[in-house]
Amino acid sequence: MLELVRRAKYMLMVPVALYLVLFAAGYIAGRYRVCQAAELRNSYIVRLSSTLEYKVPGYGTLLERYKSFHDARRNALVFGRDYRGLWLLIFTNNFFITNAMTVIRAVFVMPALLNIYCAFFQGVVLAQAPSSAFIWLSLALEFGGYLITIGATVSGLFWIVFADRHGFQSRKNGARNALALFVFLLAISGCMIAVGSSLETLLIKTAFGSLGR
Predict the structure, then answer these.
(1) Spatial CA neighbour of 45 closest among 147, 116, 146, 118
(2) Quick count: other Cβ atoms within 10 Å of Cβ 80?
(3) What global pTM score does this model have?
(4) Does 7 have pLDDT greater than 80?
(5) pLDDT at 64 > cutoff 80
(6) Nearest-10 crossing angle of helices 99-107, 133-161
(7) What are the angstrom distances between the C-alpha of 131 and each of 10, 17, 137, 192?
(8) Which of 145, 184, 144 is CA-nearest to residue 1?
(9) Of 46, 191, 188, the residue nearest 119 (C-alpha)
(10) pLDDT confidence of residue 31
(11) Where are the alpha helices (DSSP H) in the chain?
């Protein structure tokens, strides 16, 4: 398995590097007030990235129904102070729903670039909003998990389409190895997102606990 990871290292490193560079640029821009988070939030690219899947007929309708369920369920769990249920909801949403959307975007490559571009926006937001070590660590774990998923998906596509260039005997062999790598990295992504979701739940619990006192 480590050999497969070694083969995929550049595909895994590129999304992470792009994200970090754009996030750092956004953080610096936000810190020095070169741009404002409120303005970027209404920009065309950020709005497109947040609504892209909803524009797909059928698929968008399912997502809207899920979002309505998710938001109502989240509010009920928060106000009911059911933090175990809240963690499960956050983890399920982040690992299954967001990761599935990440895979779909990565398959088409170009939509995945919207995710990376939005790293600039996230950098601006964090520079101009109150934050803590918990918030930074939660974001690092959750978005790190998503970036691993992107890298695994893109690697798999290249191994299947350009099997011979990556040292595989056939596309079938490339697909078999791509699937093995994807499952392995998805497990790592899941562990990272699980810890990130725990921190996110703790942040919400702390915030609502302070409001209740």
Answers:
(1) 118
(2) 10
(3) 0.87
(4) yes
(5) yes
(6) 40
(7) 32, 23, 11, 20
(8) 184
(9) 46
(10) 93
(11) 2-7, 9-31, 37-41, 44-51, 59-79, 83-92, 99-107, 110-128, 133-161, 171-212
Q: Is 94 helix (H, G, I), strand (E, B) or coil?
A: helix
Neighbours of 144 (CB within 10 A): 17
- Residue type, position 90, single letter: I
Q: How far is CA 186 from the centre of its chain?
A: 12
Contacts of 77 (CB under 8 A, 6+ apart): 83, 85, 86, 89
Determine the Cα–Cα distance for residues 137 and 71; give it in Å rounded to an integer. 24
The residues, any chain, with a CB within 8 Å of residue 206's CB and separated by 6 or more, are: none
Q: State the residue for tokens 């919400």.
A: 204
State the sign of the Cα–Cα–Cα–Cα dihedral 207, 191, 107, 58: negative
CB count in 10 Å sphere of residue 209: 11
**Contact (CB, 8 A) for 36 and 29:** no
Domain boundaries in the chain?
2-212
Compute the distance between CA of residue 183 and CA of residue 149 in angstroms, rounded to an integer.
10
Kindly report the average pLDDT of the chain as a whole number. Answer: 88
Phi, psi of 13 (to 5 degrees): -80, -35
Query: How many other β-carbons are positioned within 10 Å of the β-carbon of residue 173?
Result: 14
